[in-house]
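Lab meeting, item 3. Inverse folding demo.
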């Protein structure tokens, strides 16, 4: 399998996984179980994409990865760095567009989480895993082989921001750019998964404590 085929497989699988819960609700009227179905499909989807990644070829960014210990350290450090990026981007977003510092997407999920605690699996494990494999590895990694790395990172990060369906595009794009940088620096997609998952966990715990 070529790298392009691997990237295509990751992206298409991800899109199908996202559509399954909505399809179940629309065709079978199972709206009350939407988040449960989403948790199941996203969890299985994350495992499937991890399997595809394990079995697939490495891209040009992964040819010379950091040693495992350093990659893990960067992953943990990346949690704090990602939170700092989020705070700075949020301040810029508020100054430019007067947007609330709180994300509607996040608030909706936090409200649902209090009633359906299994959603924490999506927020802190499944979604970050799939998003890193798709937006950082498949899209950023794939485009980096053909385009200037900065342009590839911008495209990947804008798509990452758009798919969250939130008005805070600057925040999501900034986080995406940081994670692209981290992936390129470490050569390990697992580093960005750790950082992304850890950032989501901190944000989730913050909201639940208030």
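The presenter then showed the designed sequence:
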């Amino acid at each position: 399998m070529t790298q392009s085929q691997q990237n295509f497989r990751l992206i298409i699988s991800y899109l199908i996984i996202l559509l399954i819960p909505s399809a179940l609700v629309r065709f079978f009227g199972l709206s009350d179980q939407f988040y449960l179905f989403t948790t199941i499909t996203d969890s299985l989807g994350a495992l499937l994409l991890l399997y595809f990644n394990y079995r697939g070829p490495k891209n040009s960014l992964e040819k010379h990865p950091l040693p495992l210990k350093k990659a893990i350290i960067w992953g943990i450090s990346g949690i704090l760095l990602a939170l700092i990026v989020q705070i700075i981007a949020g301040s810029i977003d508020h100054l430019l567009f007067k947007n609330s510092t709180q994300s509607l997407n996040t608030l909706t999920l936090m409200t649902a989480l209090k009633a359906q605690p299994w959603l924490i699996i999506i927020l802190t494990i499944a979604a970050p895993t799939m998003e890193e494999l798709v937006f950082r590895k498949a899209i950023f990694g794939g485009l980096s082989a053909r385009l200037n790395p900065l342009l590839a990172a911008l495209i990947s990060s804008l798509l990452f921001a758009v798919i969250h369906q939130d008005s805070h595009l600057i925040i999501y794009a900034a986080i995406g750019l940081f994670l692209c940088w981290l992936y390129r620096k470490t050569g390990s997609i697992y580093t960005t998964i750790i950082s992304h998952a850890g950032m989501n966990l901190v944000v989730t715990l913050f909201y639940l404590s208030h």
